[in-house]
Design brief:
The structure is a single chain. With 343 residues, this protein is an all-alpha fold. The chain has a two-stranded antiparallel ribbon. α6 packs antiparallel against α7, α7 packs antiparallel against α10 and α7 crosses α11. The protein is elongated. The C terminus is likely disordered.
Length: 343
């Protein structure tokens, strides 16, 4: 019995301590720009510039592009053509952005934060700016539009270098690994996104829509955006705070009671009484008779009225009013009967 009491007291203390502790928000692991990440970003940027330089000078990489194009993989393995036509959709901007945004939107709702959606928006914005500028800046033609065998086809108004499908696959699916909540989930999602991006890039080479060097530069471009995202975290945090403050102000304005419109009151100006002309006496007011005496009593009927003592009810038996004290009959004498009156 004593043991049960002690256990009950301990449980009460634990529950009371839990009630006093405030609810803490869910922990979100924000990647930082560590030294390892800086080194990896620098190496990827050097690889990016090396690919661009190798294509510009028409090196062995351009000759490899032509050899792969003449090999025509879609003719060598036609049995997988139908599957890869659908698989390459995993690198298209619209479908992948919708799928990933739906998942990150659900996470934002569960964790009460806008960071996942804002990080996705920042990565797609960087992707459009960097990859789009490189495409139209170098103007390389694709394999289906090549004109000179062995040429790098640069500066001819194309938009094929780097591969947008490959870079989009790296960024869109890699953002899931970047926003993973645990190290184990980050490792698995990193491997899955790398395999997906690798397959999308090779699929574009199989279908003949990109050179092999386009795919290599697309992988590097997407990886640079993922590695540079920690530099955008302060801006993302400030944007999130601004959006939440804007929401709070809007809610406060919506819940504020509406004040009734104030009707303006026009002041009344009293005119002064005109003075009488000189030499004339000021007119005197006529006396006003009392209206109460003139109206009379409204609840009485017209005609002569008697006093209340004379209005005693009369019945066949006689008056019900007791006899007056002045008209008492001496004891021993009989009161004469009154004659009946009324009709």
């Amino acid at each position: 019995m004593r043991t049960e009491r002690n256990l009950t007291r301990r449980l009460d203390r634990v529950f009371a301590r839990l009630d006093r502790e405030p609810e803490r928000p869910a922990h979100i692991d924000v990647p930082r720009m560590s030294r390892h990440r800086v080194v990896l970003f620098t190496a990827t940027l050097a690889f990016y510039l090396a690919i661009v330089w190798a294509v510009v000078i028409t090196s062995w990489l351009v000759r490899l592009d032509w050899q792969v194009m003449f090999f025509r993989p879609y003719q060598q393995w036609p049995q997988i053509h139908a599957f890869l036509d659908y698989y390459v959709v995993l690198g298209q901007r619209g479908p992948t952005a919708v799928m990933v945004a739906a998942w990150l939107g659900w996470r934002s709702w569960r964790q009460h934060t806008l960071r996942p959606l804002l990080t996705l928006a920042a990565s797609l914005l960087l992707l459009n700016i960097t990859v789009g500028a490189a495409k139209y800046g170098m103007g390389r033609l694709g394999p289906h539009y090549a004109t000179v065998i062995g040429s790098n086809e640069m500066g001819l108004g194309g938009d094929i270098f780097p591969s947008g499908h490959t870079a989009n696959a790296v960024v869109t699916w890699g953002i899931l690994a970047y926003l993973a909540s645990t190290p184990r989930a980050r490792r698995w999602l990193s491997a899955l996104s790398a395999i997906t991006a690798l397959g999308v890039g090779l699929t574009t080479v199989y279908l003949g829509t990109h050179w092999l060097s386009d795919v290599l530069l697309g992988w590097a471009a997407g990886l640079l955006i993922l590695l540079a995202l920690p530099w955008c975290e302060p801006l993302i945090a400030r944007t999130e705070d601004w959006l939440f403050d804007l929401r709070d102000r809007w809610r406060a304005r919506r819940d504020r009671p509406v004040a009734e419109p104030v009707v303006p009151v026009t002041p009344v100006v009293l005119k002064p009484r005109s003075a009488a002309p000189a030499g004339q006496p000021s007119p005197e007011r006529e006396p006003v008779a009392s209206t109460r005496a003139s109206r009379g009593l409204a609840h009485l009927a017209p005609g002569p009225h008697t006093t209340r003592s004379e209005r005693s009810p009369v019945t066949p038996v006689g008056s019900r009013r007791p006899p007056h004290t002045d008209h008492r009959v001496p004891r021993g004498t009989s009161q004469p009967a009154r004659p009946l009156t009324g009709g």
